[in-house]
Amino acid sequence: MQPELFDYCKSNDIALVAYAPVGSPGRWNKTKDELVLSQDPVVGDISKRLGKSPSQVLLRFMIQRGRIPIPRSTNPVHIKENFEALEFELSRADLSELDGLDRHHRFFDFAPLRTSPQYPFEK
Q1: Mean per-residue pLDDT for 103-109?
Q2: Is 18 strand, coil or helix?
Q3: Residue (of 51, 86, 91) closest to 68 by Cα position
Q4: Long-range Cβ contacts of 117-120 (<8 Å, 24+ apart)
Q5: Taking the C-alpha atoms of 31, 68, 16 and 24 in order, what is their torsion angle to the nearest 10 degrees?
Q6: pTM as predicted
Q7: Are 114 and 25 in contact (CB under 8 A)?
Q8: Looking at residue 105, what is its pLDDT?
Q9: Per-residue model confidence as pLDDT tens digits over 8-63
Q10: 19 phi/psi in degrees, rounded to 5
């Protein structure tokens, strides 16, 4: 969730964009043991209880936390589901549970840019 970055952006009127907000489970550099965010049991429990897909829950979470999610899909069903994330709200308890999933993991760390003086990530 990067709370320090979010706070900095918010205090400077910068919109924070969530690239690959559902964890991009099909990305080329995913290891076999790596977390798939949309398959986390907490996300699954909330999605089942609300009758929403895990992706919808994750998108809604980003929206309610003030991020701008940019989901990618070419599947018409998924595109429709993405828009439906605007049609419900998560409870405070749901938000709190999802906040607890922060594992300080970056799915895209832009490793080829690590030697740049402008590289924004410490790790």
Answers
A1: 68
A2: strand
A3: 86
A4: none
A5: 10
A6: 0.81
A7: no
A8: 67
A9: 888 999 998 887 787 776 766 667 777 778 889 999 999 999 999 999 999 999 99
A10: -80, 135
The 3-state secondary structure of 23-63, one letter per residue: CCCCCCCCCCCCCCHHHCHHHHHHHHHHCCCHHHHHHHHHH
Written as six digits, the tokens of 37 are: 């965010």
87 contacts: CB under 8 Å, gap ≥ 6: none
Q: Which residues contact 30 (CB under 8 A, 6 or more apart)?
A: 24, 36
Reply yes or no on whether the pLDDT at 72 is more than 80.
Answer: yes
Angle between helices 54-64 and 92-99 (to 10 degrees): 100
Tokens 């949309």 found at? 38
Q: Is the per-residue pLDDT at 123 higher than 60? A: no
Closest CA to 16 of 2, 34, 27: 2
- Cα torsion angle, 37, 10, 78, 96, sign: positive
